[in-house]
Amino acid sequence: MGLRSSLPGVELWCVADPAHGRKLADYADRIIPSAAPMYSLAAQMAIPGLVEGATLLHCPHYDIPVLYSRRMSVTIHDVTHLLDPAFRNTLKSRVFAKSLLKVAVAKARRIITISQYSKRMILEHLGGSESKISVIHRYASPIFTPMAQPEAKEIVCRDLNLCREYFLFVGSPKPHKNLPVLFEAFAQLRLGHHREIELAIVGKDKKNQPALRALATRLGIDQRVRWIDSVPDELLRACYSAAQATILPSRQEGFGLPVIESMACGTPVICADAASLPEVAGGCSLLFDPSSPEDCSAQMSRIIESPQLRGELREKGLERASQFDAAGAVAKHAELFAELLAG
After folding, report:
1. Torsion angle, CA of 102/108/114/120, rounded to 10 degrees?
2. pLDDT value at 95 more than 70
3. Cα(104)–Cα(59) distance, integer angstroms
4. Helix/strand/coil for 288
5. Which of 141, 152, 271, 279 has the most CB atoms lying inside 10 A of its own CB?
6. CA angle (21, 25, 29) in 5-degree steps
7. Assigned CATH for 149-321
8. CATH superfamily of 3-139+326-342
9. Do the domains 3-139+326-342 and 149-321 sit in the same CATH topology, yes or no?
10. Cα 307 versus chain centre, distance
11. pLDDT tens track for 11-49
12. Tens digits of per-residue pLDDT, 307-327?
């Protein structure tokens, strides 16, 4: 059940780039095309006029139209740009992100965020009223279900030339994802009895990837780190299902969707004991100190050496992933929007 059918009698309009209008047509009663890019003066000037007549404007990101004066709600996924050292000292974060986030918190009648951790960080760093913030967790797409590991291994070998055992990282390798610690941990792992195992990185970031490739070369793991820019969800499902475990070493995460996607595929998760990750994993993953390559490497060794542990984490993870579902998230959004529309 989608949001449209959950709000009978309410028209749902969507402001979208013309290139994406067709994909969104099934989810909205009306598509309003706008080619103005995010974070631009053009968008700030255009959006208030494009949504003229709307009863409620919901902004799915903190880049709100600051001159809009009518009823508005906003989703703030995280405040990573204010928390992580790689971002918070940049001019963009100090001037642009922090200013817009503060305006969004002040102007919005309700704020949606995706974890209790993000809610705490919003209140701590941006202020606002606790009663104004609702937590609605993310969830894995229904496509992420267990696939028989022999089948999954055959697919990733054929389509990605990923034919050895491997650990998996999914996400854009930005600084807060903490990949240097993962690379050091992987290098230590290979010093033991696991020299043939590989590390697959699914995701790209043109700015940060060259330095990470150079680090992999210095650590002597460049021949065992596999860089995969992006894959469709069906192939990503196979990537999860064939992996020894999915690893998230992030220092900051608003939610950490790969945790739930991996668990939904029946694959163990190793994640940093930081930010929202322990909350989302819910005691169903292995945790490590995000500043310690040694701790991360030790957890990777446990996964390789204990089929029993992998089986236990698989069962716990499947149960945990089932607690995050689309229907529940849609129902919570619909309830919140209905309240705002009536208010």
Report:
1. 50
2. no
3. 9
4. strand
5. 271
6. 120
7. 3.40.50.2000
8. Glycogen Phosphorylase B; (3.40.50.2000)
9. yes
10. 28
11. 999 999 999 988 998 899 999 999 999 889 999 999 999
12. 999 999 999 999 999 999 999
